[in-house]
Amino acid sequence: MVNSRSLLQRRIRVLGAQAPLFYDTPLHAIRGEGVWLIGADGRRYLDAYNNVPHVGHCHPRVVEAICRQARMLNTHTRYLDETIVRYAERLTATFNPDLSTAMFCCSGSEANELALRIARGCTGGSGILVTDYSYHGNTAAMFEVSTAYTPPAERSTSIRTFPAPDPYRDRTGEDDTALARRYAREVKKQIEKLTTDGVKLAALLVCTAFSSEGLPRSLPGFMAEAIEHVHSAGGLFIADEVQAGFGRFGECMWGYESLGATPDIVTMGKPMGNGHPLAGVVAKRELIENFGRRSMYFNTFGGNPVSCAAGLAVLDVLADERLLEHAQQVGTYLVGALRKLQDRHEAIGDVRGKGLFIGVDLVVDRRTKAPCEEIAKRVVNAMRDRGVLIGRTGPGGNVLKIRPPMPFSQGNADQLVQTLNDVLFNPRLSAD
Ligand SMILES: Cc1ncc(COP(=O)(O)O)c(C=O)c1O
């Protein structure tokens, strides 16, 4: 077995010291199984973070589907192939009827790139609205709209931002309806500014979980009203489902359904192939036809038969193992247990989430609600050391991000909550 310490040194030598690694003590995983990662140290780590292995690490049905198709044929989307067509049929059937046409790629970044090309091509506009702490991918165009990492000076004038609704920290005392209105007016204001600057709106692009924004509780009515403003200005709504898609919220297959606003274009990736690089765009037929007449799109690897076989197996497992229903039940249980923990730990300012996408907002004190990134960092590392993997998100870096593979059970939830309780009580955690 390769020694973890020497592997880290080799990695730094060949990938550089800046290549990101999770945790102060990086995890050297050698095997995955359901909700578990098995470490080189022989320990089983409970994975409460990874949404890519959506139906579980190395799910045998997905592995078998990939192997079967790889043994038979792997080409690309320029040949007639039944697996590709069947997958596109099965995938589009999960959407509202007018979201009926699919295009495939290899990553969420590519899917968002393609969506922007479609939106700009079809509207004739270039303006893009995103939230003020967004992440949409790693390509040059996507990094520009990933405002969590790209400062305003590095964005072109066609990129405008609006605040993601944050009912927890908003102190105006307004009710949800008034808040939703006010945040929607911010979207309208940015559209008006674009118009004043002579830039026509192409699209509003949001992650339907507002994941990098810190997973704020969604405000009923906000998205519908914002999209009305977008459509009135001739723009399109692109729902980035890379995080929320494929039933993460339990109550629905797509995050936009829980936001109450229907998109013109949907992008997806991460969980789509359970780790196999599969991503895509699903959009209104007329948009894709319009785009196809004026532009060309081909992706060598995107949507190849092996990827589509993986995608089909993911859809089969989601249905056969009733994983949406399961995520809803376990998620409700876990939020309840975390809220009980809130009674014992002052640092927990807020617990929020839907299905198996949950945020625990750690604060300096509950009155000021000031984010406490220091504690969040220590908690994440201390949890890892105790065998439970979670992450952090949000502009303050203080929101514990819990987003496990979908088969995560009630017993797994108990282990997570117990470990978090131990970690928050550990005096070392607050002392050093
Ligand atoms: C909301 C969202 N969109 C797009 C992406 C980019 O996806 P990928 O890393 O597959 O290119 C990510 C990745 O984290 C994401 O969270």
Q: How would you describe the overall organization of this protein?
A:
The chain is α/β, with parallel strands linked by helices and 432 residues long. The protein has 14 helices and 15 strands. It has a seven-stranded mixed beta sheet with strand order 4-10-9-8-7-5-6, with helices on both faces. A four-stranded mixed beta sheet has the order 1-2-3-13. Strands 11-12-15-14 form a four-stranded antiparallel beta sheet, with helices on one face. β5 (127-131), α5 (140-144) and β6 form a beta-alpha-beta unit. The longest helix is centred in the middle third of the chain and has 21 residues, at 176-196. It is globular, with a radius of gyration of 22 Å. The model has no long low-confidence stretch (mean pLDDT 96). Bound molecules: pyridoxal-5'-phosphate. Pyridoxal-5'-phosphate (PLP) binds at residues 107-109, 112, 135-138, 207, 211, 240, 242-243, 269-270.
Task: Report the structural category.
Answer: alpha/beta
Bound molecules: pyridoxal-5'-phosphate
Task: Please write the string of helix (H) and strand (E) elements.
Answer: HEEEHHEHEHEHEHEHEEHHHEEHEEEHH
Largest sheet: 7 strands, mixed
Q: What value does the average pLDDT take?
A: 96
Poorly predicted parts = none
Q: Could you give the distance between the termini? A: 34 Å
Query: How much strand content do the residues show?
Result: 15-25%
